């Protein structure tokens, strides 16, 4: 039989008619899958919150005249923070994501008020979206002398530049008297004190300057000259302690480049912990290429995070990693929320940024990178302690249930937004 152009034309027309229906069906699957995952998430959350998180300990190191402490449990961290706030004599700057109106949250309110009554100059920034369920009356308790910025996800000047005037304030920094600073994954709340495994860094000495400067940049962008925080000169040029801060208002996102640079330099090992692993293809490729050249690449994520949707999006990448030489570790003891990495026993980072699009290309985030072998050894000790509560994904992951694979496929279009 000869070629019939009319038949081919009719075939294209049928395909064109069917395509919108297929697209609509696929689009409908996304909210249905999201809705189902949220129901499952609510059913599982109780058990997750009741489990007490392991406490690897607190580790100390000294780098270029700064004392560094790695905190791995919230209870110890909060007590240390509140003690230092209680001794503040000059200034306090804090930037946080979630600030709960519970026992721990109230203790911070009381500590800030006491400091303000002593004459300490205080600036506080917290995220508006993350605290939508917190009554405004909770923050209204703060002393009138305390300057407060509730950072909206979409600022009033949004029309001037959508990218500049949007973004979640996901940084978690506290700076006292320009001499002590904290940064890491811990939000403020009783849940995080015992039930989440997280990591925070305390810096005492000249290494605090970059963290203070990061907060000041955010505050000053949203205030006129008379209300801005004064610039303070650094006491030294630090080469081994650096601060990388994403500043959407300035269209600056250096943390992603920081990670890529470290991964591409790796010769021996990359050990990474993140609660949400939804990387772009370049980041994923850098990890897999490192593994292919013989680097020991281990990526630790929670077996069950506080967001089941994030879990399903993460698992969509596990197949590629398992097929390569990257080791995937599922932390089973509790929710692990740490955002840390260490490379070759030389370079390390502790901070607020997850390995996902929100953190690396949208949010206000802050990470400290430290180039020091002693500090890296402490970071590796922390990672290995967490590894005792983790299970490695094996080849059997490739044979997971077809419905699970289907859910991962349906949710793929959401990757660029999370």
From TrEMBL:
Highest taxon listed in the record's lineage: Bacteria
Gene Ontology BP, a term: cardiolipin biosynthetic process
One GO MF term attached to the UniProt entry: phosphatidyltransferase activity
PROSITE patterns per UniProt: PLD (PS50035)
PLD phosphodiesterase domain residues: 165-192, 332-359
UniProt xrefs under InterPro entries: PLD-like_dom, PLipase_D/transphosphatidylase
Cited CDD domains: PLDc_CLS_1, PLDc_ybhO_like_2
Matching PANTHER family: CARDIOLIPIN SYNTHASE (PTHR21248), PHOSPHOLIPASE D (PTHR21248:SF22)
Protein name, UniProt field: Phospholipase D-like domain-containing protein
Species whose genome carries this gene: Brevibacterium koreense
